Amino acid sequence: MTSTNFGADKTAVVIGAGFAGIATALRLRALGYEVTLLERLDNLGGRAQVFTRGGYRHDAGPTVITAPFLFDELFELFGEKLEDHLEFVPLDPFYRFHFADGSQFDYRASVEDTLDEIRRFSAEDADGYLKLLDKSKKVYDVGFKQLVHRPFTRISDMIKQVPALLMLKCYKSVSQMVNSHLKHPLIRQAFSIHPLLVGGNPFKTTAIYTLIHYLERRWGVFFCMGGTGKLVEELGALMKRHGINIVFNADVDEIVLANKKATGVRLSDNKTINADLVVFGGDPETCYQHLLPKSKFSLPTSIKKQYSMWLYVL
After folding, report:
1. Are 242 and 2 in contact (CB under 8 A)?
2. Where are the alpha helices (DSSP H) in 180-279?
3. Which of 163, 153, 195, 161 is nearest to 178 (CA)?
4. In terms of domains, do 236 and 261 share one?
5. Which residues constitute the domain of residue 286?
6. Selection from 62, 307, 100, 110 nearest residue 190 by Cα
7. Using one digit for the tens of pLDDT, what is the confidence trace for 173-204?
8. Domain for residue 278, yes or no?
9. Residue 61: what are its φ and ψ, rounded to 5°?
10. Residue 85 domain-assigned?
């Protein structure tokens, strides 16, 4: 196992076995922690559940993969190769849109093929798409390459990034950014969908999400053979091979604190698990509303949001 031993002789509890919890458990294990992963359901995956209906298996959660290197890295942390366990197949088209008027648009794997598709609707939007893609790369260079790995635990950390985000006009919505480059209403729809994948409204979600256009161009869009359930299964096997303790049907009632520092968790059966580090891998609102004492912690205004719509992908 590749380890810096940063967490040697230390214990960690991770709450929630969705992709966030699984990835966190693996990374902590690679750092040397003794890791316990707690899941209130009887299987892994969180929202990435699998169900069978009509003789077919369905992924109830995420379907396509747009940053495969992130999964490669989880195996590489332990000296393994993802391709020895999983097969990621590149998709073309990335997405196929069926519009209400009966027309169809294929968002293709190559720029030229995508431009040909756009020209069927609007010749002038082909040039507009190239400009949108260029803007997307600039947002990607800041939003993904510089910000995605940074913990914004202080206001000052966030303020430092404001000038770059203002220069890129990330105060606009995704829809506003797309509409400034594309004119045909259906093409505008097609290139505004990405916030929907995370439950966002394209008319309100910050234009920083336009970085996904370049992310898909840079890395491609993939399907995991066997479905998302197969991906979860192999990540579970990876955790077991490297000594992560996975506990199912473990419903956490409280994160135990001492002087505002997490020291463990208390389960619904009143069992307490002590730990040097506690990580919550679910929705922040759940953590603040149900697991932390309200007398000491209040939900930050920034995450007091309404639950949003979702998206069905066929």
Report:
1. no
2. 185-190, 211-219, 227-241
3. 195
4. yes
5. 11-61+227-303
6. 100
7. 999 999 999 999 999 999 999 888 877 889 98
8. yes
9. -125, -135
10. no
